[in-house]
Specification:
52% helix; two-stranded antiparallel sheet; binds adenosine-5'-triphosphate; binds magnesium ion; 20 helices
Length: 396
């Protein structure tokens, strides 16, 4: 048993001593079986949420009505979820109400994919009622039970299936794939926020190429914000190694470049995905300075977006980031005499005093002329030199 599980064992033991069943479930069990790095360790139990709260000193209610209580244990947090069945699905979305039950296998049955429906006992025994281990061996993504039924219950599962393809490098099992093709339109009922979570995870996966191609081939792409009609562009984008970029705004910017959107349409596109304003702004900034120019003024105007644009350019051409070249760009950038208007050794107030004139458009214009001269290396960034330069300039 991995360290991550050992650390959480006291929680299982505590629940069991109180007469309840308790198991590790979900992604961590899958990742441990695959010998991948383990993410959050989740726990499922027959104890009711109120009982879980009663049994542990430090808990956070993050959705007791859905069965989940967070337990703080040592320096970690664990989601402890009561066994549940989700019977009444409405409008192809996750149900509002859930039914708490006492059977582990029933709880595992409502999970999306066989690989996500395994549990591990406190003794380290794998409980695999739906062939998850078999599918891991075959590298297959398969729903628990009939895929059409499961996608009708919650259409997001189609996207999750493709997202796990990307993360794990698996293929869709035949029936699961056919059901995606048949039911893809149901994805229209799912909220944008949930789609965005899955799509961002898909972009970060090592096998995003196959996943994006599957999105196009199954028609799922048509149900994603702003992507309907962009099948060809998405196929081209599929070859891009999105996971080589660290920041989400960089990955979105790369996607925007393949879609060929101008900054204004790019902004509207990202708004459709309901991304945070900050992410939208940064992504649009990156495509506005793409392809990166390495002249002083261009680097200055680009600011931090310069490096993102350089990295995307390298990945588009060579599929890898040339760290040495990136360092060279960094040193060119570091050599800029100023990085922003604030670095100029003269301010608007200085200019107003110098000219004995009131504020107006002229201040910005004059600052801009100074900025240009400093960046072009024609003028040292020193108050004294700038003043002299302004005086000589007045004589012309
Ligand atoms: P990750 O490493 O990305 O967190 P994960 O497997 O933990 O992967 P989560 O989205 O955190 O995925 O979900 C935790 C578990 O809850 C899943 O492993 C799965 O068993 C179940 N699950 C999540 N979403 C759904 C869904 N839409 N339908 C059914 N079961 C789901
Ligand atoms: Mg998880």
């Amino acid at each position: 048993m991995e360290q991550e599980f050992v650390k959480a064992l006291p929680i299982l033991h505590h629940l069991m001593k109180a007469g309840h069943q308790a198991y590790f479930v979900g992604g961590a069990v899958r990742d441990s079986y695959m010998k991948r790095k383990i993410g959050d360790v989740d726990i499922a139990t027959s104890a009711s949420p109120n009982e879980v709260e009663r049994l542990f000193k430090r808990t956070v209610d993050v959705g007791k009505e859905h069965g989940t209580v967070i337990v703080l244990w040592e320096d970690e947090t664990y989601e402890v979820t009561t066994f549940r069945a989700e019977s009444e699905y409405k409008d192809y979305r996750r149900p509002e109400a859930v039914r708490f039950i006492t059977s582990l296998s029933e709880d595992l049955k409502r999970r999306d994919l066989t690989i996500n429906a395994m549990a591990m006992s406190a003794e380290g025994e794998l409980l695999d009622y739906f062939g998850g281990a078999h599918d891991i061996g075959q590298k297959l993504i398969r729903t628990v039970g009939n895929p059409e039924d499961r996608f009708r219950e919650d259409a997001l599962r189609m996207m999750r299936a493709v997202r796990f393809m990307s993360q794990l490098g698996f293929l869709l099992e035949k029936e699961t794939r056919e059901a995606v093709i048949k039911d893809r339109e149901l994805l229209a009922h799912v909220s944008v926020e949930r789609k965005t979570v899955e799509f961002e995870k898909l972009m970060q996966g090592a096998s995003s190429q196959e996943a994006i191609q599957t999105m196009v081939q199954t028609g799922l792409i048509q149900e994603l914000p702003g992507l309907s009609g962009y099948e060809q562009q998405m196929l081209e984008a599929s070859g891009f190694p999105f996971s080589s970029l660290d920041a989400r705004e960089e990955r979105w910017a790369a996607l925007l470049l393949f879609l060929g959107l101008c900054p204004k349409s790019a902004e509207a596109f990202l708004k459709q995905w309901k991304l945070p304003g900050k992410v939208i702004k940064k992504a649009v900034q990156i495509i506005s300075v793409y392809p990166a120019q390495l002249e002083a003024e261009a680097m200055y105007r680009a600011g931090e977006a310069l490096f993102s644009a350089v990295k995307i350019g390298m990945l588009k051409k060579h599929k890898t980031i040339d760290e040495q070249k990136l360092k060279e760009v960094q040193s060119l950038y570091d050599q800029l005499p100023i990085k922003s208007l604030r670095d100029l050794d003269i301010s608007g107030a200085d200019l107003m005093k110098l000219r004995n004139r009131r504020a107006g458009k002229w201040v910005a214009e004059e600052l801009r002329r100074i900025e240009e001269a400093v960046l072009a290396g024609k003028l040292p960034n020193r108050k004294h030199d700038i003043k002299e330069w302004l005086a000589s300039w007045d004589q012309h």
